[in-house]
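User: Show me a protein chain along with its predicted structure.
Assistant: Here is one chain, sequence first, then structure tokens.
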Amino acid sequence: MTYLGIDIAKSTHVATGINADGQILIPTFSFKNDAAGFALLDEKLALLPKDQLLIGLESTAHYAENVIAHLLKHGFQVAFINPLQTASLRNAGIRKTKTDKVDSILIVKALILGNFIHLRQREIDVVTLRGLCRSRRNVIKLRTRSKIQLASFVDQLFPELNTFFRSGLHINTSY
């Protein structure tokens, strides 16, 4: 089995390819989160046998979504690693260094230990839906705060307006 560990960041990701024996097949390289960076990633991935390759990345907010979508579109096996697992692997070593290169290798070690969740399109859809639900909740909270703030301003400037409309202040006619 061959493993590729990708340390995800906002704009530049770092990856390392290692086989099950610990031999480095693809030395650590970095690639941007854009079309040119994905072309470089594809070029490096072409060096590895696709049917024996497992690509792992830490679950990090939304930064990994483009990479995951690209990899799944090209038929690669992708797995999520819990960041706590890589942190515990880092702490188990003598040197507790945290660099992108070290993290990409720790992700491979976590894959070799079998501590991962396989990603399929369904899981990606669930993660996307969860993000959309979170955004909707935040917009509703913002709307509620804005209505309360508007009511406060109206009470100070024009207190009679609240009693003028039977349905309250927050109707189209009032606005």
